[in-house]
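Re: duplicated header lines in exported structure tokens

Our pipeline writes sequence and tokens for each protein into one text file. With two proteins the header for the second block appears twice in some exports. Here is an export where it did not happen, for reference. First protein block:
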Amino acid sequence: MQRVARQPEARAEARRFPEKTKETRWLAGDGWPIRQVDWPAPATPRGHLLFLPGRGDFLEKYLETLAHWSHEGWAVTALDWRGQALSGRLGTDSLTGHADDFAVWVDDLATFWAEWSARGPGPHVLVAHSMGGHLALRTVAEGRVRPDALVLSTPMLGFVRHGIPPLLSSWFAEAMCAIGDPRRPAWGSGEKPGQPPADRMPLLTHDAQRYSDEAWWREQRPGLGMGPPSWGWLRAALASMRGLDRRAMLSQVTVPVFIAATDADRLVDFGAIARAAGWLPNAELLRFGAEAAHELLREADPVRDRVIDAIDGFLDRVAPAPH
């Protein structure tokens, strides 16, 4: 089904939470408070959907998309990752995104999934973007969670290399952590080394309105903002991606997986995504080109509509509503 262009009321959903949305704090295994948001669910939902954002992300950026799935009948829940947005920080300041080891996020997801999936009947679906996509796929591949379906938007399975071999990048990150505090920022600002904030939009989306939603929310809630990653985060990310980039690991994942990605992505490596899609035995890959940037769920309508329609069709096939 071809969707029509956005209506004014749909745009409004990008800058407000629906009435009766519940914003709470879930306590991880070690007591760390993590922001959880639950959308109002119908009396008999078609299933339960958990959404996880990317590095430096916050849930407010995806309200328009989460509202869509809520309207489709899903009981929708979303989390901020530990150390991001309104789930605190792991570094020494309020802007740098730090992690010593991605395993802590895998543990958080596995623990939350066990509690959340027991709250109601399935199907239970996991949807994740970028770094969230990496962590979701890793947690599934390690056998820590088993959703009925897994949806990944431009998953962070490798960085754009710019001619630099991954092993050299890992060595450099290790060296920078060894000669200074791993929690210090790896660069000045933005998602990419040397990328000033003013030039950030082309990395993420072609839709100026959707891009402006992020700045609007940062003004409303200054605590949402996050800047560059730390050297420790880079070291941990490279190690985690190296561990996941293995046929032997991904070929054991039998969960149905849908992946949307663009070969024009200037942040994550499309080659690593395509390789993973080929190794996963039950995966579908929707590929875009220059018409799409990294944030497919926040792209201009011609791209975003295709992504949303494809995800909805995938879920109808592999995770249909119970009769």
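Second protein block, exported in the same file:
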Amino acid sequence: MDRRGFCKTFFLLPFLAPYLNVSGQTKRGFELQLISSSPHKLIIPLLEEFWGPMLFSGKNFTFLNSHPQEKELKRVLSQNNWNHVFYPSQADLVFSFLHLLKPVPPSFTLLKNDKVRDIRSKNLLSLWKEISTTQQPSSLLTVASFNKRRPHSNKGELASVYIDGKKIGLLPLKKSYSKIFRTHRGTVEMVIDNERARVVNSSCRHKICLHTPPAAIEGERIICAPNHFLLEIEPHHLVDTIIG
């Protein structure tokens, strides 16, 4: 995926005061996406940049699945007064991870209420430049979520598509086809087959979205940050406009 015009970065992810309403409801709509083999070295600076002195009173965290750097993440978070809990229902910050299909340049981005935000903070730009020169490409995608999304195991039937945070409709997963989405910044081509959605082509530079595993389970996402494009597998009960 292309980092130009987007601080050149991927999760799926809008930082700082102009965008932040720090009410509990709003914070749960934030989701940090971080590509790095050493997320423990970045998580505290990123969290402090997002919320700074306005960090809410609850500082509990947990993991939805086993994380390769779980021990180090626990260590640095505990050193910064975060408390590890065992259940997502108790946590303010929930970590999960997945492996990309191949290593890509390190990066980070933020989603706010399903909208991919541009990153223009001097501090974050400096941090991105640092990791781009000091860290190797990585296939580890860490997701830190404040929206308390529940883990799912059911296969989805529909995928919602958002461009610039606006939901443009749904893709049915029960048939095989391809669809090209045009954004203000370029194009993203999706293919639906075997009840899974995947990106097969994009105008972005580093093609991180192409290396994201196919999405099939409720709640799974594919993000193309430079194109401000988001696809998410929806629960079965969702009814909305189908994209033809």
